[in-house]
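User: quick one, fold this
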Amino acid sequence: MTRDHQAFIDQMTLEEKASLMSGANFWNTKAIERLGIPSFMLTDGPHGLRKQGGSADHLGLHNSVPATCFPTASMLANTWDPALLEEIGKALGTEAKAEGVSVLLGPGNNIKRNPLAGRNFEYFSEDPLLAGKLAAALIRGIQSEGVAASLKHFAVNSQEKHRMSIDEVVDERALHETYLEGFRIAVQEGNPHTVMSSYNRLEGIYANENEELLMNILRGRWGFEGLVVTDWGGNNDRVAAIKAGNALEMPASGGISDAEIVAAVKAGELSEDLLDDRVEEVLTLIDLTSTANPHHPRFEPVEVDFDRHHSLAVRAAEEGVVLLKNEDRLPLVPGTKVAVIGDFAGFLRIQGAGSSRVNPTREISPLDALTQAGLEVIGYEPGYKRHGGISKAKLRRALQLASEADNIILFVGLDESLEAEALDRPHMRIPREQLRLIHALLAEGHRPIVVLVGGSPMELPFADHVDAIMAGYLSGQGGATAIARVITGAVNPSGKLAETYPIRYEDVPSSTTYTKTEAASLHSESIFIGYRYFDKVGEEVRYPFGHGLSYTRFTYGSLEVHKDGVTVSVSNTGKSAGSETVQVYAAPEHHEDFVARQHLVGFARVHLEPGEQAELNIPFSQHAFSAFDVISDDWKVRGGCYEIRVGASSRDIRLCADHVVPGEEFPLCKDPGAIPAYISGQVHGVTDEEFEVLMNRELPETFWTGQEPFDRESIIAQTVGRGGLAGAIGGSVKLAERFFNAIGKPMWANNTNFVLDMPLRALPRLSDGAFSEASLDGLIDMLNGSTWSGLRTFISGFSDTTQDARDNTGTTK
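Assistant:
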């Protein structure tokens, strides 16, 4: 590593170097004032700035400063428009800079392995090419304003349950081709200044101290030169993390990490030269973000045009709305009389819950937006209780209103408790009270226009019995306006699904095991995720990857395949202007192998006026015809004949042509004859024995025994159901969860999952040292049955902490 700051580093004491490796508080790093090294601020912001104005937290419990709430990543991905995302990134960077924020924690770029993952709304796609291109664009936009983006959560953060301890077990090909490829594209095309490591383990090693992941892959293979920061509370072994490539632990650790680093260097366990490399990364980041840092002499304050950013948020939502079904019911012309039903129409859910929750600068309800768009709303009824529970009166009033209207717009979907950080969805169904309303409307002969609200796919058993379905996703503060403008035809819908909508959750290959284990999560479906699985086995889906309807018609003309891409002509043969996303897939001739039936290798979006034609040149992706060779541990081009498919979705292919690719033939695993399920793609319920063959090793234990002793890496969830003090702690957390649900505070109930998944080792750090390491040792002794000796250690630890505080400050903390 080049040391541009060697003169500064040479002047630092060992203690000062160590101090730069962790935060000063929840959101800021430490300064070294005598050397003029300023602190800087990091804060949340995947789809909008979340800067805490008062009490700091990581789960969005307290209000943040007002900021533009853009659509979440799950909706932005439906635009398939890198240029739009770069524009949104620039707006995010401007708002961060105006608030003196140096690092914006986003975008999230994990692959959507399963529809129930609690943070799917924060991620782009089930496809790594689409996800990587969009993440790279957002990064470029953010960093164009002198603010660093932080690409997260690296890597294989596939579930929220036990996220701080779960071991994600993935075979090599799935790891590189599916879970890491989107990150590679984002790193090499977006050049993020920071990457955030994930909480989970990967192959038994915490991601934050995984040398293969952070040094060999991220830095070695991909050429990343920036800084790696932990997720908040995501540090396990501080010295191991520094060796593996992590430079910054957040939030503050109360001096614990500093002391560990200093002790390791003095004991010869950590090279001071390696520590200097990490210090260099911090200093470089300070330079790169100097104009956004009010503590830096090069700070450049900016003004934010919130009106312009709101307009951009509206446009982003308009482009991300997906028209899933339309039997000539939409658009509704202005002046049409409509009945509006559904609680979400009165107060739209615009974002997910947790650390990404934004305090929007403005909001409007769909009810008001529909009126402003020119529809004559004859009445509104919620129809159901938003957070569950049966209300016969609400249902009765909704049915009465429906009987008075020829056109019904029905808003249904997922409430705030179902999509949030720290928990995964329990099922893929729309809540039962909403389904009850839908079935009642259908029973009376109504065929409503359905608007879906939520950041993930849902089961839609009523889809064949309604005339129109629109996926409104989590659309940000401009979402209500966007939905109304699409319904009335002021905007022609052009969104395309970035994920597959299965018919039933049980159709998903990982449904039999997902979140059903405790210690390890086995990714036994390997590369067969989303459309790669459904297309491989010929399974019917509700709506395929890439699907989205329009109010106009696009005709595909000639197709030419070149060495590096395709040239295709597209015409708008309808009566209104609109945008089409042309998708290019490659299908290997010999697909009776451990390969997907087809995979996305390129895409382009084009806007056309009626009668207009365009010729598009779409390049192939870097690994369009490659696979990761587990023998040589590298990517290799797989030679042979591929059918190049061009279409409007993965299952609406309009043009095809053969393309011969020079390259090698090589086995796609070490023992192809022993993995018949992976050759056929029939991985739904694949045996552990066959997965072991693919992994080329024994699988780890996936469940706790319930008898294992507690240690620093145990999580609080392991206390549930145990006896003694352990059972009392776990039972108290579960009791709190039931209490919050009973008083109608589902979000507070959800946050008990954050407590349950917290490792015991995090207690001293997250308490800023108030809960001492000695007290933790005492607590662990008590949990393991050594009640009295543990209690003495526990109490003496607090006494030592208090004395340290007095020695350092003269007062008690």
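User: anything notable?
Assistant: The longest strand covers residues 578-588.
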